Task: structure prediction
Amino acid sequence: MSTPAHVPVLLDRVVALVAPALVRPGSVLIDATLGLGGHSEAILARCPEAHVVGVDRDPHALELAGRRLAPFAERITLVHAVYDEIPRVLADLGIDAVDGVLFDLGVSSMQLDVRERGFAYAEDAPLDMRMDDSRGPTAADVLNTYDAAELARILREYGEERFARQLARAIVRRRDSRPFDRSADLVELLREVIPAPARRTGGHPAKRTFQALRIEVNDELGVLSRAVPAALDSVGVGGRVAVMSYHSLEDRLVKRAFAARTRNRVPEDLPVVPAGLGPEFAPLTRGAEKASPEEISENPRAASVRLRAVVREEAA
Ligand SMILES: C[S@@+](CC[C@H](N)C(=O)[O-])C[C@H]1O[C@@H](n2cnc3c(N)ncnc32)[C@H](O)[C@@H]1O
Result:
């Protein structure tokens, strides 16, 4: 039996949101964050006409998902890519428009479980945090090379850390004598710098810093801000885009990207909306949907999820 951490978040709701777009033979869903393939597996099982293009920047995830989805091998295409590369991926596959795109943002339970990848702050591990561990700078590289102003900005903007400036200065001081290598070194420094009263109230002192480093190492917000509009562009009429976010920075970005395309494209004072200028997309969720208390009690990862989805309207 799988552990609760491996249960896909909002599984039934997500399938219900995308399935109506996947009834036509040959319909295509892009799973932009394939992970362990849990959402894709359910979609392939419940939508027998659907083909899934499964994208992940983590080669290990693709390998594991490939094994899990072997029973559906004829209806899946696995692609190693960052999700802002989806337009190129579709062009390479000769696909003009797709019927659905699903994003389940963040790290997978597999990435959190493999200690050496350095995503979990509770255990001492190398400061890595790359979702694609075959390329790019690590969290240690960020800590050892960025100047204090850049570090402070990252900690403040991506970690919403109140002590960003003090932490950045302490990081720069400390690395001069001993470069950062392991997460325990960083956790120790955070304990020293963050005052005790703030440590008692703000959750684990490393939570915000680790979130900030992970976002920076993987350029998560930059990639997402390009990928959501591109996903909207890639779906045809009736096509659906669903995004599950896990922190407010991601959710805000998704909310704005959806809002820009669910508005009328005419000046507000015009009494009628001319043909063809109505909204391109209609919302399928009212605001952001959350998981039920029952799901959260079984799957703690569901506690922070915010799900938004839209459908492309008929051209008026
Ligand atoms: C939360 S998991 C997805 C879990 C999946 N829905 C399931 O049911 O197993 C997120 C996955 O997205 C991948 N990922 C995160 N950001 C990505 C990006 N920018 N491009 C491609 N894959 C990304 C991660 O490597 C991870 O495997």
